[in-house]
């Protein structure tokens, strides 16, 4: 079994990288393997398994970002659109986009089965979905990919659902974009470090021994 250090190192290595390319150091089959691992091993409340994952690779990934451009164009002031398009082309330059959705049906079923907890199930589904996002983000970066997390929902929902046959009721939560590192992208992020609020204001430990 890998040591816990490997896991902690992988968590530390996970960063937001915007400068990405379409060449990743692993195969699409390996991406699928990691996505399957995610679906099988990320926990959910009452084991509801309400997260749905749609992996878009290569041309399908590019199509997703073309759709985002299409839906944003009429919504963004004309003079600002070149800037928006440049940003979206940055995501499109990657290799893949992973859509994270929630299926409300397992949530509704649990709500009717366990009335006492009814109000909590939607929040727990969101938390489980976020765990799935973190798993894939960390795992892909551990494999040498560069990732960033985006939220073009709900503006992109209808186009994406129509094109990739995604059930209407599934709720899009987030999009994880990944690719290879553009030259110098990792070094730039590492050099910049990470701004941290004081740990003492964020972490509280009671009862530690030795
Ligand atoms: C819940 C959540 C939502 C985020 N949404 C976005 C987003 O919409 N667009 C974006 O570029 N980054 C987004 N981020 C990335 C954060 O800005 C980033 O993780 C944070 O600044 C820390 O930097 P790091 O990822 O390099 O550690 C999000 C992160 C989290 C955890």
Automatic annotation (TrEMBL):
Any single Pfam family the record assigns to this protein: Nitroreductase
Keywords: Cytoplasm, Nucleus, Oxidoreductase
Record's protein name: Nitroreductase domain-containing protein
Gene Ontology CC: cytoplasm; nucleus
Biological-process GO terms, alphabetical: cellular response to oxidative stress
Cellular compartment(s): Cytoplasm; Nucleus
Record bears the keyword NAD: no
Domain Nitroreductase residue range list: 13-179
GO molecular function, one term: oxidoreductase activity
Gene3D superfamilies xrefs: NADH Oxidase (3.40.109.10)
Species in which this protein is naturally found: Aureobasidium mustum
Transcription regulation among keywords: no
Record-stated family: Belongs to the nitroreductase family.
């Amino acid at each position: 079994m890998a040591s816990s250090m490997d896991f902690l190192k992988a968590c530390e290595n996970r960063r937001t990288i915007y400068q990405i390319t379409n060449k990743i150091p692993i195969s699409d089959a390996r991406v699928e393997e990691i996505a399957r691992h995610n679906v099988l091993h990320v926990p959910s409340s009452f084991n509801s398994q309400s997260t749905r994952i749609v992996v878009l690779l290569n041309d399908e990934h590019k199509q997703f970002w073309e759709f985002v451009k299409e839906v944003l164009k009429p919504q963004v002031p004309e003079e600002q659109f070149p800037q928006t398009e440049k940003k979206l082309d940055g995501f499109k330059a990657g290799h893949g986009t992973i859509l994270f959705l929630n299926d409300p049906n397992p949530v509704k079923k649990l709500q009717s089965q366990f009335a006492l907890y009814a109000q909590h199930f939607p929040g727990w589904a969101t938390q489980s979905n976020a765990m799935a996002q973190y798993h894939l983000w960390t795992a892909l970066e551990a494999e040498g990919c560069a990732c960033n997390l985006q939220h073009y929902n709900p503006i992109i929902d209808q186009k994406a659902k129509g094109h990739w046959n995604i059930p209407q009721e599934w709720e899009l939560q987030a999009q994880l974009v990944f690719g290879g590192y553009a030259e110098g992208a990792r070094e730039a992020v590492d050099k910049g470090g990470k701004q941290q609020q004081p740990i003492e204001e964020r972490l509280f430990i009671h009862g530690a021994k030795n």
